[in-house]
Amino acid sequence: MITLYHRGAAQDFQVVGDALDAEQQEALMLNARQILRARRAMTAVDFLEQIPFRVAEATNNFNDEFCVLIARVPLAQYEELRIAAAEPQVERTFVRIAEVLTEIGPYIRFIAVDLARLSPESWDVFICHASDDKEQVAEPVYRHLDSAGIRCWYDRGEILWGDSIVGKINEGLRSSRYVIVVVSASLLRKTWATKEMHVALSQEIDSGQTRVLPLLVGTDDEVAQIVRTLPIQRDKRYVRWSGDPGEIEMELRALIRRDNVGGKG
Known about the structure:
Elements: E1 2-6, E2 14-18, H1 22-38, H2 42-50, E3 54-59, E4 65-73, H3 75-84, H4 88-104, E5 108-115, E6 123-128, H5 134-147, E7 152-153, H6 155-158, H7 165-175, E8 176-183, H8 185-188, H9 191-207, E9 212-216, H10 220-229, E10 239-240, H11 245-261
Parallel strand pairs: 4-5, 6-7, 6-8, 8-9, 9-10
Antiparallel strand pairs: 1-5, 2-3, 3-4
Helix pairs in contact: 1-2, 1-4, 5-11
């Protein structure tokens, strides 16, 4: 765990439970960001937008009771924060965050991040794609998300020699939280890839939760044709592939933060 801010002599704490319900957490963070933005503390705003913080009740070895701002983050982000924590300006930024949260909410005694440990039995994202889109789209998205600590089910890494292809794909679809569907003219010509997409859409309908994330690939005319061919996609906000997988990460993190706050994770 990395402590980004603390007040008082105590150096450690144990989390007891959430201090606020999901709606209260979201409202507190929204108001804190608005105040920090009004005070031109934009670095602080960025941290609150990028890190899935929650306010929790905590205690320590002295039986003190207080609140902490805490988050679990992937390895890449954890390492970035570990390095940044030694910089005086970053330390001052988290002081401002603690002061604003205490000003409008509960008293914050610690701000800390912990490493989100990955489970080999589950994936955050299943990448559904046609073989024609592997090199130019699926591979860059996979490499970027994997390096950012977002675990991806991707056929090249998960289906090994002798494995059942159908069994492994079903396992990936069942275990993944989201399914990024690389929707292109090529995908519409591939029977197997479209079956994966339809399975994921069926799971989404059954669960009532967002699972299918369309990533549309192609020219304006090709995208328009895709939308005409797949009417169900008209009800979904889609992302256009720009060639920058960092944009996919940002969109995905925003969705994960929302679902974590809403208790869907």
